[in-house]
């Protein structure tokens, strides 16, 4: 089956193959085998009968998903919130990384980096409470609004403002963390390029345009493709801890919808929703990669 | 690697994966669990049994072999093997461990929905009423008195699958909380008792600067504690529970879609327009309610949703009154009775006595004597006051003591935060959250442990006779609850909030009712009626048709 030439090649690299073996086994055991469990999406799962012996139900679980009032709405909300996050949030870490990169005072740079990184470690349970107080009718933000002669704004009780709050607080929380990856990429850019450029008379601005940004493009492309893949994850923790009846119409996302279904331990429906999410994400990742390959003439894409 | 090699490798991986996954797993034996011939089961009380026990998730950090556990073990000749869960663990991990076949002999479930799911999955052993009645007659009598609806929680398609528990405390309505100093400041000398008086007081709280700071920054009220409690005192004045099943002319109906609900919403719209309701009432979240904070900080002067004698107890340095006194020495709190309704009577929503369900693993059918031992345990706890108290809160003088001012209080080191739960101590003697004492006892049994004034307070402000509970105990006894109930709760909260805030016109209520019915409300109502009818049969079986009066 395997040609002699290849076999020799395998034998020559057997130590390397041996090294990668645990990794292959890991993925096989914990990622590929469990995938077979996806058949649960097509079954009515009875625990004591196991996955295999539970009765097949065909596409019923998917029909239930799309027949419900709430799932299509949740899908739409998820897309809207995610796209807004992507459009307004994707470049924030890049900008922060570029700005930090220009700072020459080490303690200041470190300080800012730590402070912007910090929110990432706060749980949304805590943050939800903090923002409820900050943005409530008698909170400091509305005190400012009142001082400016405006009547208080119901930031969390208005379907549109709520989305704004979600996106902005999400960016605030995640930007510092995102910037770390770009900072690492920036550290990898050859310092000689900058020296050569400044000898040629390029200022800070031109150096950034012609050296720093192109150096970041591979990282940007990879992260963009990955975040497109995650577009059906609109941030469960954040939404769940901040939403309320008045904004359900615009902020009920797939995950909160599935959670309500899970109260009945409806594993089949939850698996169907998960499978749906995965398929869409896969299509998006492949599509984005294809686009990236075309746009950069095959230079920058994941594969 | 060439493309072909990758394909071959991928194929092999896939085949192996499918092969492993499809290896036949024999269905668990419990599916064909033997039916128990209860006539011939004997339990010799002096023979030691080992019982694994997955009790209520209220003690996440408890140790094994606590004093309480040893006390219970010694009293009943049992070796207990406890599993301690926290709430997320109970909700997420417990179903998975059950699915994995790791099922304790005895399990605790909070809501009928979970019990039904576990029965459906085949984890649970059937437990005929006669067995419970035979071995725990006193326990059953008390349960029937305080929470007979709990029998519905353990029922599945006409058969019984567990032992229901009850919380005697939950028959008491909550008092409302008033800022008496505010009331006096705006010229009102006693706590409001009618809708009109409530309205007048709230109006003055908004417009007559009750905190005297010269700024119009106070509101009358800000509900938002729980979907079942928001504005419920006002709905009750009109005779309905908005988010529960109630009985109307012998039929079970959903309170929230009755014509009275529209009247209440019209009233609340008006109050909102008059700015008596803090707009933040709408933005409470799952983990954060603005209600308590607003009241604590002196933004609102009236609070309803939960409360007890303890809130007003100045002897307790951690009570709400004490805390508010520290923040502002001017504060004076006063309790209020339920409003006098349109029919001239007081009504108040209560959670009601029916609590949870204890069920046995299907595998216990092989050792049915364990069931009998647990029933004996419940029977003894229901009759032996000293043992009950020790099973709840430990040994007097070692774990706790009592004084007229403080009631039952824990002794060091158990008074340290968390140390009580770690040691399996539960100060609350009237609730349903003991680990090895999962049901409460009749209130008169622990009455002498109340604080000075507590009994009188209850008589005045929390008369159980005012209590109105959900007609079927918990709405999720309806078989389709898992599919519809959460969505409907959510939909109703949204519609109500929109109508009150004026986002939608009052007429939207009629559309809401139509949609509510179409989206599963009608199904649930029908099922609730069926359950309610079936309940009479169950009550007859367990002797609960005419329970003794609650004292």
Report what the structure shows.
The complex is a heterodimer of chains A (303) and B (551). Chain A is mainly α and 303 residues long. Chain A has 16 helices and no strands. Chain A has helices at residues 4-12, 14-32, 50-53, 60-67, 70-89, 92-102, 106-117, 124-135, 140-147, 159-187, 191-199, 204-229, 236-242, 248-251, 254-262, 267-295. In chain A, α4 packs across α16, α6 (92-102) crosses α10 and α12 runs antiparallel to α16. Chain A is flat, with a radius of gyration of 25 Å. The two termini of chain A are 27 Å apart. The model of chain A has no long low-confidence stretch (mean pLDDT 87). Chain B is an alpha/beta fold. Helices cover 40% and strands 12% of the residues of chain B. Chain B has helices spanning 3-22, 67-76, 87-99, 112-120, 129-135, 137-147, 150-153, 180-185, 195-207, 232-237, 259-273, 290-296, 320-327, 369-383, 385-393, 419-422, 454-461, 481-501, 508-542, and strands spanning 49-54, 78-82, 106-109, 155-156, 159-160, 163-166, 176-179, 219-221, 245-248, 251-254, 300-303, 333-336, 348-349, 354-360, 400-403, 407-410, 467-468. Chain B has a 5-stranded mixed sheet with strand order 2-1-3-14-6. Chain B has a 4-stranded mixed sheet with strand order 8-11-7-12. A two-stranded antiparallel sheet of chain B has the order 4-5. The longest helix of chain B has 35 residues, at 508-542. Classes of the chains: A mainly alpha (303), B alpha/beta (551).
Write a concise synopsis of the structure shown.
The complex is a heterodimer of chains A (303) and B (551). Chain A has helices at 4-12, 14-32, 50-53, 60-67, 70-89, 92-102, 106-117, 124-135, 140-147, 159-187, 191-199, 204-229, 236-242, 248-251, 254-262, 267-295.
Which structural traits does this protein have?
heterodimer, A: 303 residues, mainly alpha, 0% strand, B: 551 residues, alpha/beta, five-stranded mixed β-sheet, four-stranded mixed β-sheet, 19 helices, 17 strands
């Amino acid at each position: 089956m395997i040609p002699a030439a290849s076999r020799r090649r395998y034998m020559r690299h057997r130590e390397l193959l041996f090294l990668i073996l645990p990794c292959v086994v890991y993925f096989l055991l914990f990622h590929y085998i469990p995938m077979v469990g996806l058949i649960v999406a097509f079954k009515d799962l009875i625990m004591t009968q196991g996955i295999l012996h539970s009765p097949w139900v065909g596409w019923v679980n998917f029909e239930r998903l799309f027949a419900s009032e709430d799932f299509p709405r949740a899908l739409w909300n998820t897309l809207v919130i995610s796209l807004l996050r992507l459009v307004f949030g994707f470049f924030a870490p890049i900008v922060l990384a570029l700005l930090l990169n220009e700072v020459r005072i080490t303690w200041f740079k470190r300080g800012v980096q730590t402070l912007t990184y910090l929110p990432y470690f706060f749980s949304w349970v805590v943050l939800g409470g903090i923002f409820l107080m900050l943005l409530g009718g008698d909170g400091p933000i509305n005190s400012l609004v009142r001082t400016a002669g405006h009547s208080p704004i119901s930031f969390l009780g208005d379907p549109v403002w709520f989305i704004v709050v979600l996106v902005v607080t999400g960016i605030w929380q995640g930007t510092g963390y995102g910037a770390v990856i770009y900072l690492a990429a920036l550290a990898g850019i050859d310092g000689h390029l900058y020296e050569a450029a400044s000898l040629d008379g390029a200022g800070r601005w031109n150096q950034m345009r012609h050296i720093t940004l192109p150096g970041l493009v591979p990282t940007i492309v990879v992260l963009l493709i990955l975040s497109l893949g995650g577009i059906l994850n609109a941030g469960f923790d954040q939404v769940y801890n901040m939403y309320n009846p008045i904004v359900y119409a615009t902020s009920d996302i797939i995950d909160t919808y599935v959670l309500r279904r899970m109260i009945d331990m409806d594993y089949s429906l939850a698996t169907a929703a998960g499978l749906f999410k995965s398929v869409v994400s896969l299509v998006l990742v492949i599509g984005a990669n294809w686009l990236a390959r075309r746009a950069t003439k095959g230079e920058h894409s994941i594969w | 690697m060439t493309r072909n090699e990758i394909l071959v490798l991928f194929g092999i991986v896939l085949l192996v994966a499918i092969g492993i996954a499809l290896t036949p797993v024999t269905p668990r034996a419990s599916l064909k669990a033997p039916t128990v011939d209860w006539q011939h089961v004997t339990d010799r009380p002096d023979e030691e049994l080992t019982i694994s026990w997955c009790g209520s998730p209220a003690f996440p950090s408890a140790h094994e072999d606590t004093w309480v556990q040893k006390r219970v073990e010694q009293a009943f000749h049992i070796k207990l093997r406890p599993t301690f869960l926290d709430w997320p663990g109970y909700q997420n991990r417990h179903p998975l461990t059950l699915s994995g076949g790791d099922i304790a002999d005895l399990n605790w479930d909070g809501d009928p929905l979970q019990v039904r799911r576990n029965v459906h999955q085949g984890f649970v052993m059937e437990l005929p009423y006669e067995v419970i009645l035979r071995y725990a007659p006193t326990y059953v009598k008390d349960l029937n008195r305080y929470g007979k609806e709990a029998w519905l929680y353990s029922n599945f398609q006409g058969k019984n699958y567990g032992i229901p528990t009850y919380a005697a405390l939950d028959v008491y309505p909550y008092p409302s909380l008033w800022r008496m100093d505010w009331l006096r400041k705006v010229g009102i000398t006693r706590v409001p008792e009618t809708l009109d008086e409530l309205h007048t007081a709230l109006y003055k709280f908004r417009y007559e600067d009750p905190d005297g700071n010269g700024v119009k920054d106070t509101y009358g009220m800000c509900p938002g504690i729980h979907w079942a409690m928001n504005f419920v005192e006002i709905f009750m004045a009109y005779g309905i529970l908005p988010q529960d099943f109630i009985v109307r002319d012998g039929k079970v109906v959903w309170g929230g879609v009755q014509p009275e609900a529209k009247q209440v919403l019209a009233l609340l719209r008006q109050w909102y327009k008059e700015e008596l309701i803090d707009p933040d009432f709408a933005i409470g979240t799952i983990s954060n309610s603005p209600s308590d904070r607003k009241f604590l900080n002196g933004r609102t002067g009236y609070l309803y949703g939960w409360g007890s004698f303890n809130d007003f107890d100045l002897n307790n340095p951690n009570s709400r009154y004490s805390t508010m006194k520290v923040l502002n020495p001017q504060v004076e709190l006063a309790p209020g009775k339920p409003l006098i309704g349109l029919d001239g009577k007081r009504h108040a929503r209560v959670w009601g006595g029916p609590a949870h369900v204890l069920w046995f693993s299907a595998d216990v059918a092989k050792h049915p004597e364990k069931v009998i031992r647990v029933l004996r345990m419940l029977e003894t706890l229901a009759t032996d006051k000293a043992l009950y108290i020790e099973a709840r809160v430990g040994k007097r003088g070692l774990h706790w003591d009592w004084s007229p001012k403080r009631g039952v209080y824990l002794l060091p080191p158990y008074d340290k935060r968390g140390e009580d739960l770690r040691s399996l101590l539960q100060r609350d003697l009237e609730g349903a959250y003991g680990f090895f004492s999962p049901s409460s006892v009749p209130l008169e049994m622990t009455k002498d442990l109340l604080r000075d004034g507590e009994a009188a307070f209850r008589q005045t402000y929390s008369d159980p006779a005012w209590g109105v509970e959900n007609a079927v105990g918990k709405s999720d006894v309806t078989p389709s609850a898992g599919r519809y109930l959460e969505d409907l709760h959510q939909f109703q909260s949204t519609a109500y909030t929109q109508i009150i805030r004026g986002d939608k016109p009052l007429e939207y209520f009629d559309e809401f009712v139509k949609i509510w019915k179409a989206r599963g409300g009608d199904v649930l109502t029908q099922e609730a009626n069926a359950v309610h009818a079936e309940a009479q049969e169950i009550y007859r079986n367990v002797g609960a048709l005419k329970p003794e009066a609650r004292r």
